[in-house]
Amino acid sequence: MVHTKKIIKETFWEIPEEKPYNKITVQDIVNRCQVNRNTFYYHFQDIPTLMIDSIEDWMADVIQKYGTLESPADCLTYMAQECMKRKSSPINVYLWEAC
Asked: 71 vs 61, 67, 75, 78, CA distance in Å?
């Protein structure tokens, strides 16, 4: 089950590369990761919950890797590299949140 939840999260972050966040549907996500809608709803209440859960996981990873904050530059470099992997996703999500 943990594996399925991880796949849903990873798949979610692929989609904003192609379309704005506010146009993403649960059907887009389940079709791409080939899971049932009920499986999605077993793990997440809705798409915003999925996004928040994903961001919290990412930030926990940042804290685990750079939690000592001996070098804030390392932390910022890591975060910038992660954002560059998905150039459109952070922008699409930010624009949706800003509206």
From this structure: 16, 9, 7, 11
Topology classification of domain 2-98? Tetracycline Repressor; domain 2 (1.10.357)
Q: What 3-state DSSP class applies to 19? A: coil
pTM for the full predicted model: 0.71
Q: Where are the domains of the chain?
A: 2-98
How many angstroms separate the CA atoms of 36 and 4, rounded?
A: 11
H/E stretch holding 80: helix 72-85
- Model confidence pLDDT, tens digit, residues 21-62: 888 999 999 999 999 999 999 999 999 999 889 888 887 877
Q: List pLDDT tens digits, range 75-91.
A: 677 777 766 666 655 55
Q: Is the dihedral of CA 61, 97, 28, 90 positive or negative?
A: negative
